[in-house]
Design goal:
Elements: H1 13-30, E1 36-43, E2 46-54
Antiparallel strand pairs: 1-2
Length: 65
Amino acid sequence: MDTDSSQPEPRGSDSRSNQSALWQHVREALRGMQFGTVTLVVQDGRVIQVDRTEKRRLPRQAIDI
């Protein structure tokens, strides 16, 4: 018998706990960010990774290296 893996899992306390943990990670990634991106990596319909890329803007003046 084939099962359709695209069907969402039933919502229960585990699912709510996982969603709460995911949103906590997203909030932490956004905290203090002024410029940048937060990317959610999804595999098989599940978020497996939260990436944060922060950009730091330099003053308009040139900086010699």
